[in-house]
Specification:
By secondary structure, the protein is an all-alpha fold. It has one domain. It has 5 helices and no strands.
Length: about 110
Amino acid sequence: MLCNFLYIETMDTDFLTREAYRVLIGRSGEVSEFLRAEIGASASRYQDEDTYLVAMRKFVLNIANNPGGYLDSWNLIDEIDPDEFGTQAHKLANDILAVSKTPLDKRGPADE
């Protein structure tokens, strides 16, 4: 029996434009290596860069609004100041918004 599978290509961080990669992977790593890993691993859930940016901004805003909960989930609450972490996460969310408002053709090439 021959089965036909519908293949839907999903995002991979290798497909991101230069600016999207810089903010989602580079900047998130400046905030936390844990956050960078989560954002990078989430790419496969999205089919294009724009929906990925919007979703990751929401994700980061949720973290920014409850930094203690996020840090506690990673057992980092005693190592990282939640207020400073929340401030950095808000800045990251603003950076993501700026990239998402930039037209795709102005974000630079994908660095494959």
